[in-house]
Design goal:
It is built from 2 helices and 19 strands. It is mostly beta strands. A hairpin with a 5-residue loop joins strand 7 and strand 8. The protein is globular, with a radius of gyration of 18 Å.
Amino acid sequence: MPSRARQRCHALLTGLVALASAAVLSGAPPAVAADTWTEVGSDRADPLTESQGLASVEVPAGSPNRYTGIGTIPIGLSSRGWNHVGDPDASYDGHYIEPYQADSGTAKMFRVQAPGGAWAEYVHTLAGGEALNNSWVAVAPGGRWMLAGEWGTMNRLLVFPTPGVNPDTSPSVNLPLASTVRLDRPVRDVQGCDFSGPTTLLCSSDDPAGTLFGMTKPLLRIDLSAEPGATDVTGNVTALRRLPLRSGCSGTFETEGVDFDRRTGTLRVIVLSPGFCVLTDSKTYRFTRS
């Protein structure tokens, strides 16, 4: 995971001042939506096996929720350099997909488990200007296309054919970058996204500065102009709320992956606690729309 500077106590105040100044100069209001997500509970997040991402799996029926963390990376993968796993997702027909990155910085890998249990690896050679980070995947409800995310301050999301689902994909050939989602305003350090509808994404941002939306660690909504595919689409970004930052320790929190379970309407987001408390009171928070 990319290194982070220590959180400054004045970060939120600085962000609010900068945002207000920008609004005065441009006449534009903050991009904050009225869509309300209320916290309804939480569960402890294990720092080894539940520290990167999570996904609800609909097929086969009764499948347990899936999680990723440093402790879930198979030794066979890490020995080949795939030493970071991001926030996974599952297609509506039951294909489960984990995003991997390597320090070599030349390719990304998507590890796919079919509903029958077999695993396959799909490698994507980085395109020009593409960041090496493979922070998350989100499979569109139609199944044939998926989104993936880079790190840092970005004005786009990446679109790939869904490996194992889209018939034009194969583990034996390069997984191509199909198109992009062009965002109407930048986002920073997005750790996970999931579709809550055909053209709506909910995303967790680990933004430590708070200058983009007037808050640190925001929950974002991205409304696409059309369903993703082989042609670029646009995305309208709004901030919904700040994610919970509660712990027995003080310091820098880290927001991680996100999952939306359409069967229950429940949104879940992992937040890791600072310092030693990452072992004791890191949480997966649950939200419902109210």
